[in-house]
Design brief:
97 residues; two-stranded parallel sheet; alpha/beta
Length: 97
Amino acid sequence: VFRHPELGIEVAREFDRPPTLLEKIAYQVEEKDYRGTFYFFQMAEEVSKEEKLIGFHGAGGGGSMMSMDAVLTRGFKLANYCDTSGNPSASKVYRFS
């Protein structure tokens, strides 16, 4: 996708909706740094103050899924799903945190 801007793909992810502003920002960091992988998916766009909203940054698919299940069973709502793996640079992880 990076080599073919003529395709007009703004964010190379399989979303069931147009990408949010945060997803676009996250993808810009990803496309400029090839070290490691980074995935960001915004799950909550509109929330009320009563909701127990939490940001989530896991590492590795299986462990992340178990951690998300634990957070959800405690009554929290996930604001996002974020995953870094494959030895990303410290600055890349920092920019997504």
